[in-house]
Amino acid sequence: MTGKDRQIYAIIIVIVFCVFIACGVGNFRAKQLLIDAVGTRLNYALAEIGPQIDLGRLSALSQNPQDPYYEELHAQLQTWRVERGWAGLYLVTKTTGGKWVSLLDSRSPGDPGFMPSGQPMRGVPIVVEKAYRGAVIQGEYYRTPQGARIGNFGPVGPLSTPVAEGDYAHVLAVLGVEHDASAATDFLYQTRYVQLGVLGLAALIVLGLARRKPLS
Q: How far apart are the C-alpha atoms of 37 and 189, rounded to whole Å?
């Protein structure tokens, strides 16, 4: 192999590498655009649903899971979730002991993601803690046993602005709404694999042709 041959092979490798990086960046950007778009739509949902929750009755429900408001609010949230095609719509709350538990889940008990009232939550994401402190979390991407999700979280209480550290008594619960992003993200991952395969095949073809015909 002459020095010129090596230069040509090196150029081919650099081109393939650059195209690979460009495809990766493109897929990442597409994923971010998806998260931003869904997050904006879910943010409107939080703004619409939050004010319709009766805070007085929700306060009583947080103290007594058997309160009649449970069935009424469950039916209301379930209707919103089904009509809009959301994967999840639920309320979680923090106990006096500092543990996060499910307050109300709009999904049916037969749903794999259903969280019964009072069930402790494991691995609570930091975004839920931030929402508890008054922040509205928009477009958070995460994975659950049921698949990829894009979720928004917001505080439910008399106030909706950040408060001083440790002064969160006004927050009754955190409202979470989830979009099932499995199909979209799976498509992006499959596209990435196809791109890798095409790039690898193209590189092999070019190298094969270069070996068959002496380079001059």
A: 19
Domain extents in the chain: 28-186
More confident call, 70 vs 40: 70
Tokens 């008594």 belong to which residue? 169
Token duo for residue 131: 């929402």
CATH architecture, domain defined by 28-186: 2-Layer Sandwich (3.30)
Q: Give per-residue pLDDT as tens, 43-64.
A: 888 888 888 899 889 888 888 8
DSSP string, 106-160: -S-TTSTT---TTPBPSS--HHHHHHHTTPPEEEEEEEETTEEEEEEEEEESS--
pLDDT for res 199: 66
Residue holding tokens 């508890």?
132
Tokens of 88: 């999840």
Q: Would the pTM count as exceeding 0.90?
A: no
Task: Report the side by side order of strands in the sheet with 137-144.
Answer: 100-105, 88-94, 173-180, 147-156, 137-144
